[in-house]
Each structure stands twice: as C-alpha cells, then as structure tokens.
Structures
1.
Amino acid sequence: MSHAFAMGDYGFYVWSAVAVFFIVLLIDTLAPLARRRRNLRELRARLARQENRRRPGTPPSNESDA
Amino acid sequence: MANWVPLWLHRLGSPPVFYRFAGAVRPWALGLALVLGAVALYGGLFVAPADYQQGDAYRIIFIHVPSAWMSLFIYGAMAVAAFIGLVWRIKIAETVAMESAPVGAAFTFITLVTGSLWGKPMWGTWWTWDARLTSELVLLFIYLGVIGLYHSFEDRRQGARAASFLVLVGAVNVPIVHFSVNWWNTLHQGSTVRLLGPSHIEASMLWPLLTMMAATKLYYIASLFARARADLVASESGKGWVRDLLAGRTGNDPA
C-alpha cells in the first residue's frame, strides 16, 4: 500500500496538488457560510439599535450578540 | 417548451424564493460532489495505471484538468448571468454573476498551482511564459478584477453593473485560453478529451476524469448557492422576508 502512496518518485508533486485542491475548496466552502452568519448577526444588531432609538427606555440587552 | 419552465424560472427570480431554493439544493449538491470526488480520486490515484511516459506524475491530471475546465465553464456561466443582469436588470442574475467570480478564481488558482506542480517534474520548470499558461494567468487577473470592482462601489447594484461590463469585455479571453494550444506552438500539451471525435485517453483514465468533472460542477452549484445566500441576506436586509427570517417567522432556518 505504501508503494501506491509513493507515486513513483513523484509523491511530493501529486500529493501537493491534491492538498492544494482540498485546502482551497475547503476555504471556499467555509467562507460564505461564515459570511452569511455574520451578515445576519449584524442585521439583528442593527434592528435592535433602531428599536432602542424608537423606545429609549428599553435596556440595551438586545445588543448582546453583536 | 412546457409552460411551467418559464413560470418556474420567473418565480426563481424572486430573492426569497431563490434563497429557499438555494438552501434546499446546496447540501445535496455538496454531498454528491464529495461522493463523486472521492470516487474519482480513488479511481484516478489508485485504480488507473501509470502513464507509460510520465509515470505517476500524470495523476495530477485528475485535479488539474477538471479545475481548468471549471475555470472556463464558470466564466461562461458568469458571462451569461452578467448579460441577463445588464439587459433585464434581474437582481438574482447580478447576484449569480458576482458570486460566481470567487469560485471561478479559486478554480483558476488551483489550475495554475497544480499545473506548476506538474510542470516542475515533467518540463523541468515551475513556470514559463507560454500562451496557455499566460492566458490562464490573465483569466485569474480578470476574475480578481471583477471581484475588486464589485466591492469598490458603495452601492451594490451599481458595483454589480460595472463589474458585469468587465465580465463581458473579459469574455474575449475565454476562447484564447481554450484555443491557445492550437493557435500557438506551446509547451503545454493539446486537449486529451474531446467532445467531437475520439478522446486520446484510455477508458480507465477517462472515467475518473469525467467523474471529477461532474463533482466539480456540483461543487460549483453548492458554493455559488452558499455565496448567493450570504449576499442576499445583506443586499435584501431592508426587505420584509429577511426580517421574517431573522424573527424565525418562516421557520426555515434563522442564522
């Protein structure tokens, strides 16, 4: 089995190519998920601030997850 | 064409409908892409025999070539969406065009790096200013230019419109990349797999390549949909449906 993983003398090049492929696509998969969550969080905080301005008496607890 | 097809497309042009559709399709596309990608890599790295000239180094083809195909395919999809967005001012088309660019840039980057990793052992150099390599590098710069132009405007839709023009102008580079190996005498080898005429490749090597092509296409759908969803919650933040989403009123998936 280790023979198959050695890829002749080209193991470094083949496995580096595989690694680049997976690392780049992993970043590409995770980045938009984080961005969507961040956008929603910021929007929620913005709405809470607007609500606060409208009714100044409310405690600012709704800013907690900003 | 059946009547429901244009009707369905029309409904999909509505941001909340697209958002839900993308959220439903994304996990399936990503899951299928992972399964097909694993099968293709197993077939390519372990099952297919070594090349008679290049030994095992040729196995980089199973990553390099599908990525290169995607770098051009995504540009084509982005250009079509940009054109639709410019002509009919459909917001979803603009979103699809703009959110395709980072995925295309990722695949172009993979193509260049894996090509380099293949070039070093086979050609004896990491890089050469050959027609294919240079035009692919220009493709990466165009993708980065589109992303940069989109984000340099305060107003998203204005940015999308400006960047869509750049997409259409930059489309001239796509045939140059594709035909560069025929038009110029280059170090890069010609196409191995052809749509017209017989492919110059053994079946045991062809099926992992085509499986990987399907996997990368599905991956593009998954990534594009995730990006479009992230974009829509920001660009539509003033609309009722996003407020409903935050309040959990549609029940679908808040945050």
Note: The radius of gyration of chain A is 24 Å.
2.
Amino acid sequence: MAGAAERPLSPHLQIYRPMLTMMMSIVHRITGVALYFGTLLLVIWLLAAASSARAFEVVNGLFGSWIGLLVLVGYSWALIHHAIGGIRHFVWDTGAGFGPGPRELFAKLTIGGSIALTVALWIVIWLVKG
Amino acid sequence: MSVSPGSSMRTPRRRVAGLGSARSGTGHFWLQRLTALANLLLILIALPIVICVAGQGHAATLAMLGHPLVAIVLLLLLFSVCYHMKIGMQVVIEDYVHAEGTKVLALVANTFFTIAVGSAGAFAVLKISFGG
C-alpha cells in the first residue's frame, strides 16, 4: 500500500519482551488452529465406523499405534489448553481478572492445568483400557 | 454498494443501524462465546463416551454410537465445533492474509472446509444411528 509506511505504526510483537500472558494468547490461537484440523481425527473415525468393519479396523489400528497415540495425546492437550484459555476469556468477559496478579495467575493456571489435566486424562484412559 | 443519496428511501441512520465497523456488530463475538460454551458442555458429555467406545470392536462401537442420546450429543457437538472453527479461523485469516483476492479465497475455503467436515461427521453419525 503506497504511503502506508510513512504513517506511524503501532509496534508489533517483535518489539516486546516475551511475556507469559502474551505467550498464552499466542498458544491459544495456535491450539485453536491445530484443533481446527484435529476435528478431522474425530470425523475420520466416525466415517470409518460408518463405512465398514475393515475401514474401522484400519483407522483404529492407526489411532492405536504409538504415533497415533502421540498425536491423540497432543490433540487432547491442545483441546484442554484451548478450553481453559476459553474459560479465562469468559472471566475476562465479565470485566474481572485484567490486573497484573490475576492475569499472570490465569497464564500459570492455563499451563499447569492443561498439563495436569492431560496427564490425569491419560492415566484414566490407561486405567480404564488397561 | 454505493447508494447515492436520494435514490433510496432508507435513511443513512437506518442503513448502518446495528452494524459496527466490521459490518456485523457484535454478532461474531457473541457466537464465538455461545459456541465456546456449547463446546465445553458437550465435550464434557462426549469425552467419557468416546473413551468408553475407544478400542472396542466394530459392532460394539456401532451399538454405542447409534444410541439416540449419544448420537444427538455427537451431532450437537459437531455442529457447535464446526461453527466455532469457522468463525475462529475467519479471524485468523482476516488478521494475517491482507491481499484481497487471497483473503477472499481463504475465507471461502474456510467455509467449505468447516461445512464439509461437519456434514461428513453428521452423515456418519446418522448412518450409524439409522442402522446403515
């Protein structure tokens, strides 16, 4: 765009020292984009079940392989991280939690909570499925 | 859509009523939050079901997924998730893709993708439910 560079521009990401809250904002968006494509996993599984026993076996085999499980663990972490980040947005929507203390706490809760819940989830799955 | 004054009976005030600078008011924000809440509730119901079904044989899986209550939860989840995906990715595209042509193509691809994914999932659930 002609002349765009002559106007003063607001500083962008690379100007700032990386901060936890900034990172959580970025990770929220990245997990959102990852989940966008991750929904395909659920739909592929449903389509395979609806198609035939053979197709279902193939997809189950893929999801149950070590690389499949690794993707599923990553997918579940992204889902939980994005969900906690979403709950944080619900709190912000009420106008609360914007101060330095609460927003740092939210950031730490989002990281800690997402990792703890992902571990807990897979322990439960391991216990149920053996 | 340039309307010369006098060619329309609608007043300038009426033409912009309810529209913000993004031409859609707060509708986008509200639907993002609404589908987020729906996703959260539906995931909490669907997750235990999916864990129960995971790893089971084909027949057992079909029986479980075909139960009306399970199928309804999955259909609602697919609809809410795909809508959330569509408006979420729309914001990402609008933030990062600035060339008008590419942006429009990306937005169209986003709409096609989310509707296709949602429809495919919904069709699978319905086919299983109706015993196909």
Note: Chain B has one domain: 24-129.
3.
Amino acid sequence: MSTTVKTPIGNVEPAKPRLNYLTNGHSLKTWLLTEDHKRIAILYLISVSFFFLLGGSFAGMIRWELMSPAGNVFESDAYNRIFTAHGAIMVFLFLLVAVPAVLGNFCLPLMIGARDLAFPRINLLSWYLYTAAGTLILISVVTGGVDAGWTFYTPYSSLYSNSNVSLCLVGVFIGGFSSITTGVNFIATTHRMRAPGMTWFRLPLFVWAQYATGIIMMLGTPVVAITLLCVVFERTFQLPIFSPELGGDPVLFQHMFWFYSHPAVYIMVLPSFGVISEVITAFSRKRVFGYHFIAFSSLAIAFLGFLVWGHHMFVSSQSMYQGVAFSLMTFLLAVPSAIKIFNWTATMWKGNIHLNSPMIYAIGFMGLFLIGGLTGLFLACMGTDVHLTATYFIVAHFHYVMVGGTVMGFLAGIHFWWPKMTGKLFNDNVARWNAIVVFLGFNLTFFPQFVVGWMGMPRRYHYYYFAPEYQAFNIMSTLGATVLGIGFVVPVCYLISSLFKGKPAGDNPWGAHGLEWQTTSPPPTENFYYDPIVTDDVYDYDPVAEHEQYLERQRQLGAQA
Amino acid sequence: MAAHTDSPVKFQYHDIDQQNDTYIIGMWSFMVTEIMFFGGLFLIYSLYRGNYQADWYKAHEHLSWQWGGVNTANLLVSSMFMALAVRAAQRKDRTSVLAILPVVIGCGALFMAIKYWEYSTKIQDHLYPGPSFTTDPAMVHHANLDHAQLFYGLYFGMTGLHGVHVVVGMLIISVLWLKWYQRKKIVTEDFIPTELVGLYWHFVDIVWIFLYPLFYLMPRPYNLIEGGH
C-alpha cells in the first residue's frame, strides 16, 4: 500500500500534538474500562508477560530437579504439580493468548484501516475472562497445585486425583471463552470492518493468519470447553461421563481433548506465522513471494489441523487403521507448513535484507520451526512414534514448535511493533545480540532433549537413576535453560527502559509497508486521523527506492544522535 | 466521538448497515461455537447409545414423554411468539414488542418449572447418578444399572446445560425488553438486535428439539423387539 489515498479532513500536519491512545486518559479507570483495542492489547501484554515469567520459573524448577539422576529437591508428587503448573500456565495463559490477544488485538484493526475491532466491549470482556481464568488457575496452583498434567487425562483427573483439578479446569474453561470471544471478534472484524479498497487479497498476511486462527478458536475451543466441563461435572456433580467402571470411555476424553488441542497448536503458531510473514517481507524490502499460497496455506492448516488429532493417540486403544489414516493426514499437514517456509525463504532471496532485531528473531523462528516441523514427521510415522511416545523427544519436538515457533514469533512481533505501540525506539543493538542469545540458549536447552529422548528418557519423571548416562544431556539442557531465561528477561529490561530513554520512533521506523505504519506512533484512539482508502497492493515494495529511503533515515538518526 | 452518542451507530462503524452486518456475522459465529459446544455432548451421547442401546432404551422408559412433549410444545410456542416480537420490531411497533416479549419469558419460566418438577421426581426416585443411585433394577426397567447411570448422567448433564441456556435466554430477553421500555435507539431504531436475541432463543429451542427425541422418544432396539423382557 505504498500509495494510499487519504481523504483529508482539516489540517494534514496538526499544529499542536494530538492525544494518542496512551495519553488519552491517565486514570486507572480509563485503562481498566477501556474499549480501545490498543489499550486492551497493552493490558494483555502485561498479564501475558506475567504468566510467561511465572510459567518460566516453573520450567526453571523442572530443570533444576533434573540436573541429578536421583532428582535434586522434589518428591514425585511435588514434581507432578510443578510440571502441570508449567504446562497449564504456559499453554492456556501464554501460548494460546500471546500473539492473537496482544499483537492481533493491536494490529488487526490498524492493518485493515478500522477504528476498532467489531465488538470492543466483548474484547474487553475477553480480557476480564482471561484475568479470571488466570486468577483461578493461579489459586489452584498456589493452594496445593494440580497433578493431572496439562492434558487432564481421564480417569486419573476425573476419579483419582485429589489435587485442585476442578478449580483449574474451571479456570481453563473460562479462559476458553476468552479465546472464543477473541476469535469471533477477529472473524467479524475481518469480514466487515475493512477500509474501502481493502479487498481480501490486499489483506496483510498477518490478518489472514489471525482469521484462520479465529476459525480454529471458533470451531475447536467450544469442544475442549465442553470436554473439560464434563470432567468438572464428573468430579463435582458425580455425573458419570468418562467413568470406565460404569462402561464410560476414558479414551473418548482423549479424542475430544485432542480434537481441540491439536488445532490449538495452530492457534499458537498460525498467528506467529503471520508475524513472520510481515517481518520477513518488511526487512527484505521485497514483495512477499507467493502471497496467495501463504494466505491459503493458513486456511489449509486450519482445516487439516482438525483431521489429525489421532496422532496423539497412536498408543491408545484406537485401531491401527485409524492410526494409519491419522498418520497420513499428519504428513499432509506438513505441506502447507512447508509452503510457508519455502515462500519466506524465497521472499528473502535477492531481497534487500536488513538484520534488525525482529528479522533476526524471524530467521531464528524459521530455523527452530523447521527443526520442530521435521521432527514432527518422526512422530507422525507410527513405527517411530511407538518408540518415541512419552519420551523427551516429544518434549523437545513440541518445545521447538511452541517456544521456537510461538515465542520467537511473539518476540519478533513485539520488537517489530514496539515502536508503533509505544512511540519509542529500543536499543536495537542489544536486541540483536539478545535474539542470538535466545536462539543459542534455546538450542542448547532442547537439542540435547532430542538425543536423550531418542535414548529413551521418559518425560514426566523427576529422576533417572536407572540411566545415569542421561545426566550430561540434562546438565546441558539446564545450562541452556539458564541462558534462555536470561534471554527472556533482558528484553523486558531494555523494552521498559526504552519507554523512558528511547528516542521517538516516528511513524515508520523500519520503513515497512501497511496501514499501521501510516498513522502516528503511538496511534490516536481512533487509529487514523483520516479514513484510509486503499488503492494499492499489499507489500508493494520498490527495492531501490526503499533502500534509498532507509539510508536517508539512518543518516537522520545518526544526525539526531 | 461526541457526535455519535445520540446515534445508534457505534464509534467503530461507518453506518448502521455496517453495524448490522457485523452484528449478524458475530451472532452467527457465536451460534457456530454453541453448536460445537453442544456437539461434544451429542458425540458422547451417540457413542454410548450405540454401545448400550438396549439398556438405554429400558432406562429411558422412566422419563415422561408426555411432560417432555408438553415442554417441547411450550418451547415451540415461545419461538412463535419470539418471531412475532421480531416482526413487531421490524414494524417499529413498540407496544407489541413490550407485550409479546414477556410471553416468551413466561414460556421459558414454564419450561423451567416443568423441568424442575421432572428433576425432582427423578431425584426422589434415586435416579441421580452417584453413590445414591438406585440399586433397584425395576426402577430402571431392568436395564444394567451402570449403563442406566451413564444414561442419567448424560440426561442431567445435557438437559441441565440446556436449562442454563434457557435461563440465560430469559435474562437476555429481559434486558431486551428493558431497552425497548427505555426507548433505547439501539433497539427501537433498528430491529437487528431484537432479531439476534430471537436467533439465540430459536437456537435454544432447536437444541431441545434434538434433546427431546434423543432422551424421551427412543425407538425400541432390534434385540428387544422379539421376546422383550
């Protein structure tokens, strides 16, 4: 959208500084009762970061415990509660929420030229639901913890566990509705709130990704909500639903749980794909390669994601033929993911690449997600999966996808849009080095887990005295986790310090395209001073002119410094 | 946007058409999530009914198809009145809307009253699952007691969740009535909000249309047709 025609109403350059969304009201009430999608995104950013650091500290406890073959500090029961807390907090309160609710909330209306999401009050409601969910899960963890694992398999969770399962499940249930309302909001917004001229195939790929995510949230989340509610029914109202002793089917729980929870992986990673599409294009200063393929591969992933849940259940009671079908579907699902990776690579080819921090995170994402995706094929294959099920190979695989995918995408996006969100530039040199630290720390943490999982180390055990040869790998992993932990804390520091010391960002510090870069940083409450009209294709970069503009900006920045 | 406070068009929309289109797509999306939500329970139901056809048939004979039928008719009538209310809203006929909506709420209340009575008799007969579940095979018409317990577990779970939706529907309709009573422009100028509340009510109705035959009107399975019990 290089030439977006605007309909000016009044002065083009305001004489006095206008209020932006951050300065428009300072009281706590204007924040807690805001209907502004940008403020809600900031509320989400704060709460999501809190739960990420909390979930991370549980991961730290796990790594500490596993340094010695006999288990360092915890008893089995305490360890069960720790890894459950880590999983439940990270999955339900960070991964599922982070990119859509923070970056999606902030960027989606800006990108399509709308004043706000379709339903601002429901958007605020979703944050309150999320907060309620977080509070309940937090209470369940603090007052004794949950030991059922984040997957809450029946009949253990429904009949035998004496921990705070019900409270935690009610929390997850409420969090599900936060996710549903976000999804419905995104779908309605994408359909009906686009600016004049913003056709479907001019939508930024981030919007396509959010739209596909919204579909999964809409179709999948209610199913897991009812599944978990059934477990709550069983525990509190004694309604037998999955009870095997009465003829109920506990494996049915697994089917229904994974019917959502496999697509949920795409709720986590599709929005990150969207971020990566934006970042790679912006920092290659080049039109994205295969726009339609990337857009439709998001929808294909959303669709196929619903047909592969059985690959979590190869060693359950499901029939071999069912397993074969699910295995084939899973291999098929690798195709749209690969399309994305190839298209991003092709976008970078002969691009005018700028290695700013978002781009380094994005490139790191591609490397890590590639490893995560390829090791997924080992697990999609029934023969190898039987050997690898419930080992650290699985743990490493899904951390490569979820941390390497979602968290790297989240960090790339936060760095990319931080100047837009706050109007301040952060220290990009520190950020670049930090991106490399995160990448290295991540690999040091999780690559050894592939090896030790292949050797047979089971997950969810807090000791391995029977196989002391695992120790070297576990120590490597703990060392990596320490590096990774530092890599996650440092951005908090320099991003917050940029709020006070950062230089003003200007409207478009990265020289990127898209409507969100055409308004001020931070944007005004109504997003645009003029109603935007889109007349041009998305990502319409002119590499030569772009580079000259970029050099000019660098010179200006140098002169300011 | 001070200029907009008097208008039913919210700040984020350009005009009333965009707002209505958005409301409609939002509400239908929400309906999809509701269908998936109940769909999970229907899946459980179909699996267990397939597994335990004969036992579930026997257990279901204790439910009163007559009272269930009364409730079905009651909900259908309430849906008709809801449709009339929407029609009245389209004609901007405030008096009719204010008169009809309480009838819909009344039907909902009648439904819940009958449901309450049905639940009470089941609980008195020790048909609520759990430790107090009946040990008398005659009570479940000689079905396997465990499988009968599964049947009643889903009966209470599914009709209970439906009941929650009825109550929520009654609350929403009350709010809608209040907005009409207060002459809020969001409802009086424009019938879409009324129509969407109606959509929700019809959805609640339709769920019951499925629940009624599934729980009250089971056909006799083949293995019970000859010989019987």
Note: Chain B has eight helices and no strands.
4.
Amino acid sequence: MIAPDKKEMVNITLNGIEVEVPNGINAVEAAALHGKEVPHYCYHPKLSVAGNCRMCLVEMGTPMRDRASGEPILDEDGAQKIGWVPKPVIGCATNITPGMHLRTESDLVNECREGIMEFLLVNHPLDCPICDQAGECRLQEFATDYGRGYSRYIERKNVKPKRTRLGPRVTLDDERCILCSRCIRFSQEVAKDDVLGFVDRGSFSTLTCFPGKELANNYSLNTVDICPVGALTSTDFRFKMRVWFLKESKSVCTESSSGCNTLVSSREGVIQRITPRRNDLVNDTWMTDSGRELYKLVKSDSRIRRPSFQGSDLPLDDAISQAFETLRNKKIGVVASCHSTLEEQFLIKRLVEKTGAKVFIRGHFGEDDGILLSADRTPNLRGALVTELTTHYPSDHLNELNDSISDGHIEALLVIGENLQESGVNEDNLKKVSLVFLGTHQNSTSDGADVVLPGLTVFEKSGSLINRSFFLQSFEQAIPGPAGLMTDFKILARLNNLFSEDSSAPSELDEIWKALSTTETSVLKGITFLKIKKGAIQLDGSKWEDLSFVEKEALHHLPAGVTAS
Amino acid sequence: MPPPTFELIMAKTVVLERKPLSFSERTYLPQIATGLKTTFSNMFKPKVTLQYPEEKPVIPNNYRGVPTLVKDPNGREKCVSCQLCEFVCPPKAIRITPGSVPEDQDDREHVEKAPQEFEINMLRCIYCGYCQEVCPEEAIFLQDEYSSSGFTREEMINNKEKLYELGGTLPDRHYKWDKKKEAETDGNTH
C-alpha cells in the first residue's frame, strides 16, 4: 500500500459533523484534533500500533456505492447512504480515508468501553492509595468515565508478584499490568534493546525480561512514562511523592547537545523527578535515564553554596568586588563554558570585549548512542558559536591556555565551571595566575581559586540553549536557588559593569535578548525570549557548516552534509 | 438651603410617668426572698458542676478530638502514606514523609508502603475531621482526646510515635493484609 500523504487534508464526518483532518492519520488522532477523546491504552503516537487493549473501539462507516456500476447508493432523501461496519472497529488501527464516517460517542461505543473497563478491572488490585501512578493513571481516569462503580466479580482475584525487579531502575508491579505491550514495543522500536516479553496465558499473562537479560538500557525509564497504569514504576521515584503535589516546570535536559525537552517536577523547592516533555522535532516523548538523574546535582555535597575569597566566606556583593580587584589591570584569560546558557555566554563575550581578554573554551565529548545521548556532552556548544565566543570548534583540552600561561600572556583567569587540571593545564602554571571561579560545583580548580562565586544549576535559573540541530530552546526556573545567591547572568552583568563604568550591561533576560536580537548579522535577529518560550526556534546553522561537529545521525538529527538513510 | 433645625433631626422624646414604689417594694424583702428561694432549691438538686481537670466529661462517640493514627488488632500500622489527608487538610497541618517497607519483614507481609514520618501540627489543626473522612485505609481518627498543651511550638507538633500512642488500636472491619496473605496462600497464584 502506498502511504498516504499526511499533509493532504480530507473531509470526514465525526459524530455527524463534517470536519477536516490530515489524510491517513488514525481515528484516535483525528478525533483528538477535534476535541473528542477516544480512550486508549495500548496506542501510543510514537510507537507501532498493536491494537490489543480494545479500549479505542469506535463505529466506522463509508459512503455506499453500487458494486457493479460504482454509482453512489442514495437513500430516500437523496443523500448518499452510509455503510456502517456492523461491529465497532479499533480507532488506533483505522486510518482515515476521504469521506469516512466515525462515531465516537454513540451508545454502542460507550457500551464497548464499559465492557472493556469491567474486564480490565477484574483482576486489578485496586491499590490506588499506594500506587505511584494514582493521579496520572489512565485506568483511574477511564474507570471514572466508563466504570460501573462496583464489581460483579465474586471470584478471588489473581495474585501476582508485587515488586519484580526488571532492571536497575525499573520495578514491576505485576498485578497492575493491563498487558498493553507499550513497554515491549518501546524496547524493540526505540531503545533497540529487545528484552521484554509476555509469558504465561490468559489472566496469568505476565510481563517479564527474557532469561538472563534485564531492562538496563539508558532508556528504560521511558517505559515507566508510557505505562498507562502503575505497573512499571521508577525505583528512584517509587513511593516518594504523590503526583498531585508536584509543580511541573518546563525545562531542557543539559546532559548532551540533544536538548531533550523535560518537565521538572518539584514540591516546595525540592525536585522529585524529571520526565520527558513531548516535542516532535527534538525528542518525541523520550529522554535518557542518565538525564533524569541530573537533579541530584542540586543537593550534592560538592555544591558551592557560599561565595568565598581565599578560603573564607563573604557576602556575594563583596565577592564580586574582590573578583574585580583580582582581575583588574592584568592580562586576563576567560575560560568560558559550553554549559553556560546563551544569555550567560553573551555577557561573557561582552566582558571579553570590554577587557580585551583572551577566550578559551573546552568541549566535553563521549560516545554517541544514535538516539538522544549525543557525542557532545555539553548542552550549548552551538551557543558559544552563535555568541561568537569561539570561531573554531572546541577541542576537549585547554593546552592552548597552558601554553599562554607558560609564555606569560595570562596573569589572571576567570573560569566558568571548568576543571582546568583535568583539561591539561599544569598545576604549577595555575599557581602563577590569580583565579576567579564561577560555578555550581567544587572541583580542584575551585579549590585553588582566589575568589569563588557560586552559580546556579539549570533547575534554579532561566535561560536558553541551542541544541545539536540548531534548535533554540528555553527553560524555566523550577526551584529557588540556595539562599543569598544570584543567577549567573546577574553576576556576569555586575562584573561587566565594574569593568566598564561608562555603559551598563543588560541584567534581565529581556534586556539581554534585546541586545542579542538587534545585531544585524546574528542568526538571532528578531527573536525575543517570549518567542522562545512559546516553542523551539530553528536557527540557520549554515554559517558553521564547515566545522566538524561530533554528533552522529540520531533521532531527529541529521548532521550537515549527511542525507537521511 | 438653611441647615435643618435640631427639632427636625431628633425624634420626639416621650417622657413616661414612673409610678412611685409601694411600701413592700421599698423594704426589698419580697425580692430577697424570691432570690433565696432559687438558691435554696438548687442546694437540693443534683450537682452539675464538673471538677475539671480532676473530673473529666464523658465524650460522645462522634466527638472530633485530636487526630490520631491507629493500628489494626494485629499491631500493624494501617496508614500507607497515601497523603490524601495531607492533600485535603484545609489548614495544611499534616506533613507526611512516605517510605517503603522492606520485603523481608515477617510481621508486615504484603505491606509495601508506610509513613516514614507523620506530623500533625496541632497549632494549625482545626479539628474538621476531613482527614478521617478521606482516609481510604481507615487509619486516622479524631478520637476523644481534646486537650493538648505544650510550652513550645515544637511540642505541639505530634510526630508519628505520638500519634500512634494517642491512637492505640481500634477494631478492624477489613484485615486488609491478612486478606492479601490468604489470597496468596490459597488463592490464584500461578
């Protein structure tokens, strides 16, 4: 069959009303486009259609034509007769054809849903009070809509294992499983790690790992997200907090340059979990397990919580003045970071221009898994290119800086978060220069720094990042930072002001963006922060086509010069 | 326009004529006698004054006293830290830290989740009883304890230990964990 062009719009009749939908999408999506929810469990927009939960049954019909002549068959009123399929069909596997008729709200459809719900609940343990899914559970929601409210089942319910370990991060509660097979399809199709399957028969069917295997891949927690019930639970989040207490903030994963869209859930300033946010251009509905653990950095022991000058704590204002004193009237080097937000990089660039400092920047690289963990392990390397902090592609060392210090070209250093000792800078060389460190976590460089300015983690500030496909995305603050600290770009703006008393640096996001978007030659021209907040913006990356970016072809990413395979 | 005169603003005053007191009224004796009659009649009626705090009143069954946590007759805690009471509590007096129960505890078979810490701030509590009403496990009850006092604010926060001490054991209609065990041993395990 030739796949229909999904951009072509066709007319269908949905519950008696003629509506326009893209050709070839399925009935569940078509109904959703027009505000009619077709309940479903096994169907997931980013996975293949299995059609085994039967919850999305709808009535379907097509206009009748005479088989011999092909003439439309008309009823008494002269309208074309509709040939309704005698039994309901599953919406997820019914693709739209022009002129199709659908009923998603008829008595028959409702009866089907009620029947399916009753069967699904026959062996359900009803342990909502202790179930982590409660509050975001499709079974709960549809039981409210289509459940009968009491059970006709007088037999004893099946007993199944309640805490099976499927892998290091996933725990299975077998009794809650409704056998929708989403997790199995995810493992096969997206994670490409086929480890899950059903064993046993009938109501004893059980989800299990194949012998000798476990669900240990870096995408295993996505199975927890797509589980429509509470069967697959995250071992980390298990029994931690009920979901209705959580405040969700839109964020972007900073693990690598793939820039997964995320939701950071927190309660009273404590992050409880990170889940992916759907973005069909970047990460679909997935993210890595390793990216979900980044929130632990907020409370880590090595976090810098206080500004300090030569080992003793002092107020932030004084620390900033000390930083200025340390750097002024010297040959300055600035070690910028690809972890900084675009706004911070802009202010670093401004500082560099005002002081005539030399910029060094380091990349961090690792294995590319071809999905959402890219080889570039920094979230904003392209930001450094766009803000012109660097024109060449950063390498994973700072040997150049080491040489500059040896030659005496650098007397003072402003380091943004980087560990210089691990980047190939000689310990003896570092002793020659005075050091100002701005970062979130302690490392051997911050330990030896004269002035330490504490920064905020990505969860405690707002800003924007540019991902591997040159998508400009913004993230918002999820939790407040430690008491008495300032967001990084404000510290940088203060430093800017100290170095150039004649002009004041922008110190609010909109002001920074006003400055960023007015540069005539910049790819950021005409963009406001408000615009990025509304959705990812595709930037023109053709200017940097010649650089050898390390990212491989991956989910929604095609390196420049590579055609889709 | 000239301002209204005084007569126009004030209502008319009616002066009532007061009768002079009679002789008996002027002696005050009949009034004293009537008063003493009430006094002496109460001397022979049953006493209603309660010698609080030595003597405590009888608390009716549906009284809403201090919220407490109860255990089932097997001595197991019933609360599974679903946090519904925390959610419903209008003055936000309840604070729960959920915790999971390790699998290998013989006396707590089939119990998966229990509160690690359970605090009710009695300075905030308004004794509305929503927590008791919302509890799906019948674990929290407003019982007959009505007076709580302390010298510091911290003392007025009842922690889990205190709540179980106040709550004690109530008769159970369900024996949830026993039922689960029964279902496993002779039920439909595969």
Note: Residues 84 and 120 of chain B are 14 Å apart (CA to CA).
